[in-house]
């Protein structure tokens, strides 16, 4: 069957025009060309209404500016509980698709994931837990992928989120800080990439030394990362973890013990 394209259906005012040797070129179709093709060649495959909708959608995309697009993400906190979870799931799927390229992954949706998570931090605990379950699976999945570039981008984005979380005071009996860092722990323990493991140790070290006064329940995940690093075959990873732990114990030990008694056990 001949493909539906401008090469197969010449413009009605150009009876003797030559076909494009390259084949289909949907981008070059005009409304009149599409109407002519539908009316004379493919009445059973596509309708004029479908063509008009297609053209309208193209025009709509051209009219959407960056302000309107960013408005969708910036006001995502107005979505109800089920809607925001569905929105985050869809955003993660798009981000996964964009990050597939091993040489030139796109990070637009990944940056929007960080923004949406930041805008929705004030959700009630039950809703936020549902959102984070989706995001956590996303970070772990990409962090453990063989696409090194994508994994690096994702770990960096997770660090950005973790820094935002640690800017906020954690409520009593609320362990979200620890849950936030769990993707770091899982990837650190399971990743076969030495570069990713070293990056995680550097991320945790950087985060702890800058936000040490705000670290509460996340100490447990921090120590789990450093425990995994201590058994690493790469000397630079082991050395960095040891240096950071030594600095924390010598200079910031009161911040560890003030959280809860079990944190001291994890440290030891």
N-to-C CA distance: 71 Å
H-E string: HHHHHHHHHHHH
Which segments are poorly predicted (pLDDT under 50) over 5 or more consecutive residues? 1-27
Give me the secondary-structure category.
Answer: mainly alpha
What are the salient characteristics of this protein?
268 residues; mainly alpha; globular; disordered N terminus
Characterise the protein shown here:
The protein has three domains: 1-63, no CATH class; 65-149, no CATH class; 169-268, no CATH class. It contains twelve helices and no strands. Residues 1-27 have low confidence and may be disordered. The protein has helices at residues 31-40, 48-63, 66-74, 81-98, 108-119, 125-143, 148-166, 176-190, 194-211, 219-230, 235-257, 261-267. By secondary structure, it is mainly α. Helix 5 packs parallel to helix 7 (148-166).
List the helices and strands and how they pair.
Elements: H1 31-40, H2 48-63, H3 66-74, H4 81-98, H5 108-119, H6 125-143, H7 148-166, H8 176-190, H9 194-211, H10 219-230, H11 235-257, H12 261-267
Helix pairs in contact: 1-2, 4-5, 4-6, 5-7, 6-8, 7-8, 7-9, 8-9, 8-10, 9-10, 9-11, 10-11
TL;DR?
Helix content is 66%, strand content 0%. With 268 residues, it is mainly alpha-helical.
């Amino acid at each position: 069957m001949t493909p539906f394209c401008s090469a197969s259906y010449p413009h009605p005012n150009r009876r003797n025009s030559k076909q494009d040797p390259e084949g289909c070129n949907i981008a070059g179709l005009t409304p009149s060309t599409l109407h002519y093709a539908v009316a004379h060649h493919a009445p059973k495959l596509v309708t004029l209404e479908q063509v008009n909708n297609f053209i309208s959608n193209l025009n709509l995309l051209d009219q959407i500016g960056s302000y309107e697009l960013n408005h969708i993400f910036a006001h995502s906190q107005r979505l109800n509980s089920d809607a925001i979870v569905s929105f985050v799931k869809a955003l993660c799927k798009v981000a996964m698709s964009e990050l597939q390229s091993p040489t030139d992954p796109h990070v637009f949706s990944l940056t929007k994931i960080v923004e949406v998570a930041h805008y929705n931090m004030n959700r009630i605990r039950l809703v936020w837990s549902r959102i984070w379950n989706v995001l956590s699976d996303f970070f772990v999945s990409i962090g453990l992928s063989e696409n090194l570039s994508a994994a690096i981008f994702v770990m960096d984005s997770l660090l950005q989120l973790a820094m935002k979380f640690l800017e906020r005071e954690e409520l009593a009996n609320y362990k979200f800080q620890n849950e936030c860092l769990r993707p770091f722990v899982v990837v650190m323990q399971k990743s076969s990439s030495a570069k990713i493991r070293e990056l995680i140790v550097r991320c945790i070290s950087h985060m702890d030394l800058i936000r040490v006064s705000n670290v509460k329940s996340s100490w447990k995940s921090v120590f789990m990362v450093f425990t995994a690093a201590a058994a690493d075959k790469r000397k630079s990873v082991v050395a960095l973890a040891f240096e950071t732990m030594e600095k924390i114990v010598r200079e910031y030990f009161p911040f560890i013990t003030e959280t809860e008694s079990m944190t001291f056990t994890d440290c030891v």
